[in-house]
Amino acid sequence: MKKVSTWLLVCWLAAACSQKPEPINYGHDGCHYCKMTIMDNRYGAEIVTEKFKVLKFDAVECMLNYQKAAEANHDNSLLLVTDFQNPGKLIDATAAYYLRSASLPSPMGMYLTSFASHQAVMQTMDQHSGDKYSWQDLTKEFPNFPTLNDGGQ
Predict the structure, then answer these.
(1) Closest Cα to residue 82, out of 72, 96, 66, 62?
(2) 97 bridge partner residues
């Protein structure tokens, strides 16, 4: 019986100590970087650290600003963003596609929108124009984006 209890305790601890995202409670949770209340469920981002701490952000630009300001190494962290086409759904930030379009203002004003698929970002670009980024492109160019002009780019 003692072996079974020990085994169950080990399994429970292993399950409790995993990198699991938490849903963003829109209208209630505050941004870890800018401290604003996270309101728009089409945007939002989250870092789950290697120590299982969950940091929530108002938009992908807040998460990127936090990483830059903290000079944080999040190589072993889970980086998540909200899929624009599925409000409230968190997806892997490193596999997501990003659109920067003047006709899609994000909460923090950098016009960054996240998508789960290449097809989704291309369809949205057909409607709104703009510039497409991968996570690698985004992290290299952020925050030195060119100014958006009235042409929607």
Answers:
(1) 96
(2) 115, 134
Residue 61 φ/ψ, nearest 5 degrees: -65, -30
Q: Is the pTM of this model over 0.85?
A: no
**In angstroms, rounded to a whole number, what is the distance separating the alpha carbons of residues 105 and 13?**
42
Half-sphere exposure in the Cβ direction for 94 (13 Å, CA): 7
Tokens of 11: 């399994």
User: Which segments of the chain does DSSP mark as H helices, in order?
Assistant: 2-16, 60-70, 118-128, 135-141
Strands 131-134 and 90-92: unpaired
Spell out where 11-153 has E strands: 45-48, 54-57, 78-82, 90-92, 97-100, 112-115, 131-134
Backbone torsions φ then ψ of 136, nearest 5 degrees: -65, -45
Q: How confident is the model at residue 19 (pLDDT cuts 50, 70, 90)?
A: confident
